[in-house]
Specification:
By secondary structure, this protein is mainly β. The chain is 2% helix and 42% strand.
Length: 442
């Protein structure tokens, strides 16, 4: 195994001291948690809550202090709103809830985080909120400069917040907004030459925060020094306009590379973002929003490895099936020299050797769609499998061999690309549309 202690020990200056204060556990989006799940050795227990909401992610502040954030799946009818709940980590009982948070009438999955100043930050639609961590009352509110849905919210090393609007191909340049965290005042904005769909990732080296943005054709690097963003000379082209592949989602920064999958702007995503306000329809959209529709391109799903220094790209089609598609990014596990990729539309999960050339090591016949969690200490991957019976299971997979170690029926009937989170007690928090759950092993 590769020694990656420094790679896992990423700076935490902008966050509350917690193992999971933000989506994917940190700005590098490595989705990794120390310790062991040991799912194969114990029985599991599921506590599913049906709340008819779009449940996006959970984050932790202090031990036992957990938050769930999301929006409303109000694609038609009354206006949508964002919300944050503080919940009991075992029973999932709501202990406090925010007021309805304005979102500019946009319906899309935002983000929450536990900031280093102790507050809970929430971006949803075209609004950013700073919330009291105890009663979740609104401390500050900011209507963002761009009236579109925003996806992803990160805190940089000095606590500066950064978010961006979401734009597909042909919709103009994406705007990154940098915000002072206490009063939620805009520090600066930066407009890229092209749109961006995937969420931002960030890294910190030699006093510089670098924000990586997946554009419609290029991957962009924005260097932030003393709060001032500047487009770096570093960039690489991963696709061309109207190519046989779709747009990339987020990066996983690991082992000196960015790991991405393209083929992400599936028909449902295009339907939401080809209208304003984003995600609002005059009539029920029905299957128009489903991620199970055939892909609008010919290309097979690709895994991309991008050198963080040179921008050199290695690409692999792990499955080779035309019309691949995903709604969540991959993960790299450098301790094993293995990256994990999947194809949500056609089905299939793969472990890929990363030691030299990218090469598939194993395949598993499951159909994932979510942001996974990995436990490098025990070599376990946790991800979902949307079955042929249209139920969403959680599966635990041996990272090295691809062996299926555990399967859990969540009882959720819908799957999406939302976030799994590692809890503190051999448990996983699961978020989906209309329901969310805690799955625990004992």
């Amino acid at each position: 195994m590769t020694n990656t202690a420094l790679d896992r020990n990423e700076p935490n200056g902008g966050y509350w001291k917690s193992p999971w204060p933000v989506e994917c556990g940190g700005n590098r989006r490595q989705k990794a948690k120390g310790g062991r799940l040991d799912a194969v050795t114990g029985e599991h227990q599921v506590n599913l809550i049906r709340n008819d909401r779009w449940n996006v992610m959970t984050v932790r502040r202090d031990p036992g202090e957990w938050y769930l954030g999301g929006t409303m799946p109000a694609f038609t009818g009354p206006p949508p709103f964002g919300w944050v709940t503080r919940f009991d980590p075992i029973s999932l009982e709501s202990l406090a809830e925010s007021p309805h948070l304005p979102c500019g009438d946009h319906v899309w999955c935002g983000a929450i985080l536990a900031h280093s100043d102790g507050s809970i930050m929430s971006v949803n639609g075209s609004f950013l909120h700073r919330l009291d961590p105890h009663d979740l009352s609104i401390l500050n509110e900011l209507q963002l400069p761009v009236d579109r849905a925003h996806n992803g919210l990160l805190s940089l090393s000095d606590g500066t917040l950064v978010t961006k609007d979401l734009r597909l191909e042909g919709q103009g340049g994406t705007t990154l907004t940098f915000v002072e965290p206490t009063n939620l005042e805009v520090i600066s904005t930066l407009v890229l030459p092209e749109g961006s769909m995937g969420r931002i990732a960030a890294d910190f080296h030699n006093g510089v925060d670098s924000v990586f943005v997946p554009g419609t054709e290029h991957l962009w690097k924005i260097d932030v020094t003393q709060g001032l963003p500047e487009v770096s000379d570093w960039r690489c082209r991963y696709r061309t306009t109207n190519s046989d592949w779709g747009l990339a989602w987020d990066s996983c920064i690991s082992d000196g590379n960015l790991w991405l999958m393209d083929c992400g702007d599936i028909k449902g995503v295009r339907a939401i973002h080809h209208r304003l306000p984003n995600g609002r329809f005059d009539e029920p959209a029905g299957n128009l929003l489903s991620w199970q529709q055939p892909a609008p391109w010919k290309g097979a799903q690709r895994l991309l490895r991008v050198d963080q220094t040179t921008g050199h790209i290695d690409a692999l089609e792990p499955f080779g099936n035309p019309g691949g598609g995903i709604i969540a990014p991959p993960v790299n596990v450098p301790e094993f020299g293995i990256a994990i990729a999947w194809d949500s539309i056609n089905g299939g999960l793969a472990g890929i050797s990363t030691t030299e050339e990218l090469e598939p090591l194993w395949h598993l016949n499951v159909r994932p769609s979510m942001q996974p969690v990995v436990f490098p200490d025990s070599g376990e991957l946790v991800i979902n499998d949307f079955t042929t019976d249209q139920t969403d299971d959680l599966v635990v997979v041996d990272i090295k061999t691809g062996q299926l170690l555990s399967r859990v029926r969540t009882e959720s009937r819908l799957a999406n690309g939302m976030f799994l989170t590692a809890g503190d007690n051999r448990d996983i928090y699961y978020c989906s549309t209309l329901s969310w759950a805690r799955v625990a092993w004992r």
